[in-house]
Amino acid sequence: MNKPHVPVEARRAFTIVGQSVRRNDVLEKVTGEGLYTADINRPGLLFGKIKRSNVAHAKISRIDTSKALALLGVKAVLTHEDVPRFLHYGSPHPRSASCTRDQYILDDKVRFWGEGIAAVAATSEEIADEALDLIEVDYEELPGVFDIDSAQAPGAPLIHEVGPGSNLVLPPVRVERGDVENGFAEADFVLEGVFEGGRPVPAYMEPNVCMADWDGSNKLTFWTSTQTAFMVRGSLAEVLGLPLNKVRVLVDHMGGGFGAKQDLFQHEYLCALLARQTRRPVRMEFTRAETFIAGRSRHPCRILLKQGFRKDGTICARDMKIIYESGAYGSHSPGVTTVGTNAATSLYRCENVRLEGCAVYTNTPIAGAFRGYGVVQAYYALDIQMDEAAERLGMDPAELKLKNAVREGDIAPSGHPIVGRGLEACLKHGITAFDWIAKRTETPRNDPAQPAIRRGWGVGCEMHGSSAYPGIREQGNATVKMNEDGSVTLLTGAAGLGTGAHTALAQIVAEELGVTFESVSVVHGDTDVVPWDIGAFASHTTYLVGSAAKIAAGKLRAAVLARAAEKLQTPTEALDMVAGRIFIADAPDRGLTVADAMGPSKGIPADHLIETGSYTPTKSYSFAAHFVEVAVDIETGLVDVRHVMPVHDVGRVIHPIAAAGQIEGGIQQGIGHTLTEDYLIDRTNGRSLNAGLVDYKMPLSMDMPKIETVILEAAPDPGGPWGAKGVGEDPIIAIGPAIANAIHDAIGARFHHYPITPEDILCALAAQKKE
Amino acid sequence: MRRFEYHEPASLAEASELLLCLGEGAFVFAGGTDLLVEIRERLRRVHHIVNIKRIPGLDELMISAEGGIWFGALVTAGRIERSSEIARLYPNLHDAVRNLGSIQVRNRATVVGNICRASPSADTIPPLVADSAEIEIFGPGGTRRTALAEFFTGPGRTTLSRGEIATGIRVPPPAEGSGRVYLKHGRRKAMELATVGVAVSLNRSRGTCSDISIALGAVGPTVLRAPKAEAMLRGAVLSPEMISAAANQAMAECTPISNVRSSADYRRAMVGVLTRRAVTRALEATA
């Protein structure tokens, strides 16, 4: 990992915030001592497996489990006839607008190839697998729809009885500002394009896994790899008819989620039911193939984008229609559609906008929440069209983007005024640091040493909200305890997906409290113990839970100082606390350690100081501009991303290396989305064509470019701790259009889709030759 | 993992006998990097595993400029990769093993295993075919030796009959003034299966290309030679135009399919590009 460049501005004298302290979970991770859900064992453990359909759309006319049940070692088999018929959200935000209530635990109808239709618990995985083959199923096949067009064609077969009909997941989202007709009338020219996005999957390292165990009091203990432990608790309790205090959800280490692990994936309910029926613990773990088939992808999409421009580069009208393909269930489609559609109001200023967003059911695997949540698609189109406008205008694209960059006071997609001038700062910094103008204007596209190579440079921009407001009114909570030896315990419900969130939270607590980073330990991942948390998503953990932790730590600091003031016999206001030592600010020699202040003395027991912080945010926006160099081999069509300079405004960076890690990871995923990754579905029968990491091509370490990360603290947001904003989702958004724009710069071919394959490049070059 | 019987013969004769008796469902285990995955993914019905790692002599690797290479069935891709002599004398084979799977896989996988798997896209096969390697086989009828180019009968199929075990590979010594190149084409720089692989080995004497062989991977049911393209270049003073013409001929000689990795048209086009590049580089290497 390259150390990111963080230009130093005038700032409060931080001692822990802004330092890349050693992560508090790093030893467990690198030594293999860290426990992931699949590492946890129980005596008498059974292994659960799901039988999956081999048709895409059908009624189950008969399902016979007798042979499977007769197999030695099989302890239970469940079909739709054996499980509660409860219509649930799948994605656990039952009271929010993000999700769709359209799933049963098991149904007598199949809506996509690979949907779970039965579940087995057996004494070994092999026996469970064998039992799956022994379950006999007869289907009455139904005609299927496998793309947006056939799903929306008149008379298309309906996939769901619920919802607004016409295979729509939700009524179209419409946003209108200003006067679009008038805006187009004033335009000097109009650009119009159709953009299409593929089906990348998050491909988290740890496949979905859970384990269920019921105790004698009918309480369910449930280990799972989830970003949203309390939502899993809520959904399991709701579906199983239990009070919340009879479901305990545990999650320790996690191998990624990228948004997708906000959902429940069918196996959670089945695992709990199999365990209840057998009275034995049951574990279910997805194969890698199942993480594709039964996981959640980004929504494939089609975008019709039309914008009117004036000669000076002003955008006078924007008309966009975006259609997201939801797959067989709604999952996060309402949230994705709303956020993605609204995103197009912003980034590049335009007073007259008319936007429509739809999500359409098809008989394909489910699209859900995934890093960049609908915005990746919208800004891919928007940013590429800006590049086209610059070309038409004879302007430098970075200059045109800078001219139109959203800024202080503009209305953000959430309806709030934007704070600061973050996007302009990112663009300006990158133009200079990347030597953008010289690269674009003075460097030959041909490389004499490599005759088949054409070089090109591109820039892409993005903004993304921290927190899901206004879609969800969120709350972050933290409990901070001061122990009598001066050590501190933070209890948080925030999940640690692998991002380093718990380290950042401990840094915030230590900084605010005035103790060392090492003296703060973090308790997390146990819904019976930690304060309620909405889950780790929407780039909000540092912003939202960080603020709650800061509030709690601030209260605790006051309480500790009050106790020390008694002992020192000075007013509290005279005291300061740094690195676990309390002293009189004007006479720093006079002081005592936190342990001395807290500990027992002469028959007076130690104080028990516990404080909590609750925080309900609105929203802040982070910004980024990615500057990219590519090399295109015009004979093979291979695109090599050689150099990326991501410039991000995150308001206030808590842990620079962790933030840079998020950025580098986002770039890696974004390169994959743009060039190589696409989960392919046979559009004639709904079958998965590349459900595995052999033929689903993620870029790996050898494919990574030189990355020079720049983190700016240009536009701190008052809603986050010391102005900190989110960074999780941002880096995956700007890289895509930056690459597409750089390819255009290299070979003069414009692409309106992703992934851009070598064959696409060769076709475009062949078409150029014909012209 | 499914249940299977495990056998550990101490000699080739014992191993061959076992394979003969156990019949279908018995498989030789050396590196296991394909076999174990196939068992786990239920792609192959395996009832018996015959581990040949206890058989002496199969882990030998001999390399010299005069004698060429001989390596046994237990020699891993990693050992070939780390041989500086092979890197110097057979850069084509070195490049093939260097780009095979991951480091961990290369430390387990055997080259003979990669060959016996008979995948049309196997990286090690094109350079060995281009270098006229021979495969040695032990069986109930004794020992036989066959040209590697004639060993394959289809995807996953070879001339090995029941009870036969491939024991090693012999590669002739490199001729004076020869150049050899293997080019692999894929979407990733590592951990990749070849979309197309092209190996070219050529000899130059007194300014002409005295001999050449072109082997094409992943564009037919087995690794293919391109005899007509070779004939266009054999005995000639190579010019860029001739090389391009031969590359076009190679495109006509391959029989690619379309699948999720690539269309047939793209594979064919890459045969042209890679053949031209490989011949050019092999020629440069002779200088």
From TrEMBL, chain A:
Pfam family, any one: Ald_Xan_dh_C
Domain of life of the native organism: Bacteria
Domain Aldehyde oxidase/xanthine dehydrogenase a/b hammerhead: 31-143
Protein name as it appears in the record: Xanthine dehydrogenase family protein molybdopterin-binding subunit
Natural source organism: Acidiphilium iwatense
Lineage: Bacteria, Pseudomonadati, Pseudomonadota, Alphaproteobacteria, Acetobacterales
From TrEMBL, chain B:
Signal peptide feature range: none
InterPro entries noted in UniProt: CO_DH_flav_C, CO_DH_flav_C_dom_sf, Diverse_Substr_Oxidored, FAD-bd_PCMH, FAD-bd_PCMH-like_sf, FAD-bd_PCMH_sub1, FAD-bd_PCMH_sub2, Mopterin_DH_FAD-bd
The FAD-binding PCMH-type domain, residue ranges: 1-176
Keywords, alphabetical: FAD, Flavoprotein, Oxidoreductase
Organism: Acidiphilium iwatense
The protein's name: Xanthine dehydrogenase family protein subunit M
